[in-house]
Amino acid sequence: MNLNGRVAVVTGASSGIGAAVAQKLADQGASVALLARRKSALDELVSAIRESGGTAASFVVDVTDRNALTAAAALIEDELGSAGIVVNNAGIMLPTPLSRIEDSDWTRQIDLNVGAVNNTVTAFTQQLLRSAEDYGVADLVNTASIAGRNLFPTYSAYAASKAYVIHLSKNLRAEFAPKNVRVSVVEPGIVDSELQSHIADDAARDRLASTRERIEWLNPADIAEVMAYTVGLPAHVNLSEITVLPTHQI
């Protein structure tokens, strides 16, 4: 689990899973680059990591902007070194009944959950390959969801975007594995994070909230533990697909 010498990049690092995994990777010794749009949140997390003895830097960027992300990737390599761990985590969930769907809801989910995932892969591929040569292994970890496999009414665009991430990850693994770059896709169940705050549909929000009566939700630190464990394994071991559920979520 010692990640000393490795550089980690985390997208969507301003809150939730992204913030938790950034802190955890830093605790394990990685130098962490935090990417998101909210500067104040990133700066607070960088300060917390540094205060606990870790190394971190923030890069304010909209990951749906390919050119901006490519420029940020170059800055990260200059400042911290080649990224050897990339946690492709930025995403949004906007469940809406088809009868009331807004084009912008679907577009936002596809732009971030699909487009930004692609942008991140292309922006950091060469760094991952260089890091794999230097350290014998590198890691790309993509955040998906059980929605990518199961049926959730009103979550059509979100579920489809996460199915894309799952299948993309499998195909990337086939290409990257011979080059010592491990690809993992993590598929969480219900996680208590900022993701739920974006839900505008009252019925979807209430239905999700009602599950608290029978299910103890996961928290971001739970997912961070799984991701840190995954990238800390020996180089010949790849957890390629990981489903993480609350014990009582069926």
UniProtKB/TrEMBL annotation:
<protein>
    <submittedName>
        <fullName>Short-chain dehydrogenase</fullName>
    </submittedName>
</protein>
<dbReference type="InterPro" id="IPR020904">
    <property type="entry name" value="Sc_DH/Rdtase_CS"/>
</dbReference>
<dbReference type="Pfam" id="PF00106">
    <property type="entry name" value="adh_short"/>
</dbReference>
<feature type="domain" description="Ketoreductase">
    <location>
        <begin position="6"/>
        <end position="194"/>
    </location>
</feature>
<dbReference type="InterPro" id="IPR057326">
    <property type="entry name" value="KR_dom"/>
</dbReference>
<keyword id="KW-0560">Oxidoreductase</keyword>
<comment type="similarity">
    <text>Belongs to the short-chain dehydrogenases/reductases (SDR) family.</text>
</comment>
<dbReference type="InterPro" id="IPR036291">
    <property type="entry name" value="NAD(P)-bd_dom_sf"/>
</dbReference>
<dbReference type="InterPro" id="IPR002347">
    <property type="entry name" value="SDR_fam"/>
</dbReference>
<dbReference type="GO" id="GO:0016616">
    <property type="term" value="F:oxidoreductase activity, acting on the CH-OH group of donors, NAD or NADP as acceptor"/>
</dbReference>
